[in-house]
Here is the input.
Amino acid sequence: MSQRPKELTPHASPQHYSGAEMREWRNLRGLSLNKLRELIRFDPSYVARVERGEQAPSPDLVKAYDNAVGANGALVRLHAEVVNGVGVDALSSGHVARSEPDVAKGLSHVADVPGGQAVSEEEGIYVPCRTSDGRIIFVSVPRRAFLGGLGAAAVGIAGAPAAQASPPRPRVAVPDRSPLEHLEAVRRVLVDSDNLFGPHQLIPKAQEQINAIGVLREGARGLDRRRLLRVQTRFAELCGWFHQDAGDLRAAQYWTDRALQWSHGAGDPDLTVYVLARKSQLAGDMRDPIDAVDVAEAALEMARPGTRLAAVAATYAAHGYALQGEPVAALRAYDHARELLHGQQVDPAATWGGWMNDAYIDVQRARSLSGLGDHRAAAEGFRTAIASLPAGYHRDRGVYLAREASAYAGSGEAEQAAATGLEALAIGASTGSARILAELARLDTDLQRWRTVPAVRDFQDSLKASVLHEA
Here is the structure.
């Protein structure tokens, strides 16, 4: 006789509520856990813990689960609201899958970037996992299992704390600093931490600040309120970037769209143009050339003289042309980006796109050349750009190394590809960057025909040891 499913307690916490909703959808479709496994290929015991509210689900599980049960995004939206700190009372009074409250109004408070709180051994931490179709995704596994040996082979990742938000703390005064100065300082800390450690443990921190600013906006008026909205826009854009680097492109779209929405009320045209350019970059990562080009061209038209924003937009438009298979238009757009960068006197007060330089254009051009099949020129472009990177750009160096390795593989230089891939792997494992690991998964596939070459075998063995495999 089969064991009776454990009775759920949806009102115990938002996590329990989310798990109960997932089981309700599964039961509605008449799916057992084992049958569901055939559709989404996640361990049934892990899914059961999520349904019981005993473990937080990974975004990839929720997305796969939603698709499998035909929830049309309801479970994804519910998960986003739970992550953003919605309370059980709000969930009970109005299901988030059928309403879209402003997440900026969550009950959080301004605080310094808090340290990770203590976690139970059953809570999940994110680790890279290789799926049956060759992709690398991040999944949540119980901390006890991970530290007990399941993740011991994951190079450098076991020492990273779990990514989660700290509970709200009492509002405290910040001596000699306005709330806006404090928030900007927090944002700078998050940006610097991302370059070194990757996005997973920073996403909850960014969302805490977004919620906190929403509370501050409720009590502000006039110019102060607009300034808070401007800072909230910047945090939303940053949150979108964190999700983009973590490989959750749907969440990246959500937060970048929120940033664009808020930017129009912030009274900062440069900020709006920058967010438009970021939307073009995201569309390029999602391999949507139409949006990549159209949004970038809109940003180009709006860009103010004396800023680097037009050059940023032209660069992302160029990659959109490459994705469309238009090499002439792509290379012309990269040349135009360089002309825009050097053909004007940049206003020192114009800070958006301050990282834009020749090396950045070179590395984006190299990426496009690789996609267009000119692998040798792409590898040279990546090598030149990597040599120009500032010391603090640890994670970006890993992304560029991974793409350089793929370019070497495309040009038939297997040993160089494997050696460069190993450099990228060390950075990908330490930062948890899904962009790096996704590039390396493709490199692994490209190197299969040279799998007997010792250097290639070393790379593939190292990648296999660093990434869990789908159960």
